[in-house]
Amino acid sequence: WKTKQEMADEALFLLLHNEMVSGVYKSAEQGEVENGRCITKLENMGFRVGQGLIERFTKDTARFKDELDIMKFICKDFWTTVFKKQIDNLRTNHQSIFNLSTAKFLHLRKFDQWKVYVFCSFQYLAFTCGLIRGGLSNLGIKSIVTAEVSSMPACKFQVMIQKL
Amino acid sequence: WKTKQEMADEALFLLLHNEMVSGVYKSAEQGEVENGRCITKLENMGFRVGQGLIERFTKDTARFKDELDIMKFICKDFWTTVFKKQIDNLRTNHQSIFNLSTAKFLHLRKFDQWKVYVFCSFQYLAFTCGLIRGGLSNLGIKSIVTAEVSSMPACKFQVMIQKL
Q1: What keywords were assigned to this record (chains A, B) (predicted)?
Q2: A42 in contact with B, Cβ within 8 Å
Q3: What is the 3-state secondary structure (H, E, C) of chain B?
Q4: Partner residue facing A19 (CB), from B11, B45, B82
Q5: Residue B17: closest C-alpha in chain A
Q6: Residue A7 touches chain B, beta carbons under 8 Å
Q7: With contact defined as beta carbons under 8 Å apart, do B58 and B46 qualify?
Q8: What is the pTM of this model?
Q9: Of A28, A37, A84, A159, which has the highest C-beta tally within 10 A?
């Protein structure tokens, strides 16, 4: 159960995120090429926000042991701050791939109601991919983050760590 | 004193807001006319977010007695949800003007450090003006909201209610 304040924070984030997505799309021309540029723009916004958040969150945090320890922090503390819940499931191949899955992703909520929007879903995931990538980057991990929607509103993020 | 979660929410909002402001400005051409259009765009974003928030907040709220009652709600509940503190001072001429002042406005924080940004300050106030106007609009009050920075980071918002 979420408190009233948590629901309000979630609503604020949801509304701001929607404004960002539609702002980026409105300011660009239509067309497939431009769509790619919008995704990149949103991903970069997420990246900077993720960096800023991690900077503030890890001030009083103990040093991390390893990559798995960092990924657990992202799935628990970081995710809870932003989305008011943890990532439901974290899997890894114990090399460089981590799969984070959530049964109910905040920004996919509206697709429950308006099924026509399903094809545009990636524009609602780009910011969050950037958020994860930015957070990891500030903890010294270079990564590629992609997202996949199998069945709404469930969602899977894949983090591929780029070894130096 | 703020909790860790409140500080995190504040940071998230601050970072998202900064991304919105710089996103709107980056996507526009430079020049004075365009600057006016950016302000309007940010104000409109704030308006829609304010409408959305009030819609969610007032679901279980008792009906308001009058305009002063509504303004008090905006200064207490609404402001606390968004900014994690109340408006410090509310004054009215008991006709149609309300002055809301706050000694430390969240989005003016960076100006403490970089004084050069002081002239651009209105771009950091437009979204919040819209937020108030959108909130009031959903409560049936048509208004014009302006902002004024006398000494950083203090800030005053003026609400002029438009009688029908």
Answers
A1: Endoplasmic reticulum, Golgi apparatus, Neurogenesis
A2: no
A3: CCCHHHHHHHHHHHHHHHHHHHHHHHHCCCCHHHHHHHHHHHHHHHHHHHHHHHHHHHHHCCCCCCHHHHHHHHHHHHHHHHHCCCCCEEEECCCCEEEEEECCCHHHCHHHHCHHHHHHHHHHCHHHHHHHHHHHHHCCCCEEEEEECCCCCCEEEEEEECCC
A4: B45
A5: A16
A6: yes
A7: no
A8: 0.80
A9: A159
Note whether A132 contacts B: Cβ–Cβ < 8 A. Answer: no
Q: Can you tell me the distance from the alpha carbon of A11 to that of A16, in angstroms, rounded to the nearest whole number?
A: 8
Determine the CATH number of domain A4-161.
3.30.1380.20
Q: Is A3 on the interface with B (CB under 8 A)?
A: no
C-beta atoms of A53 and B13 within 8 A: no
| Ranges of each domain in chain B | 4-161
Structure tokens given for B78: 């609404």
Closest in A7, A19, A57 to B48, CB measured:
A19
Residue among B13, B20, B82 minimizing CB distance to A20: B20
Residue A81 contacts B where some CB pair is shorter than 8 Å? yes
Q: Nearest to residue B134, comparing CAs of B78, B67, B52? A: B52
